[in-house]
Amino acid sequence: MRLKRALALGMVAVWTSSSPSLSAQTPSSSAGRTGSGAELLEDCQRYFTFLGRTGAGKEETFDEDPFGIGYCAGLVRGVARSVDDFHPDIECRLDSFTFARAVRAVILFIEDEPQALTRADTEVVLSALQDAGMCARTRP
Question: Which domain holds residue 105?
Answer without folding.
Answer: 2-16+35-137
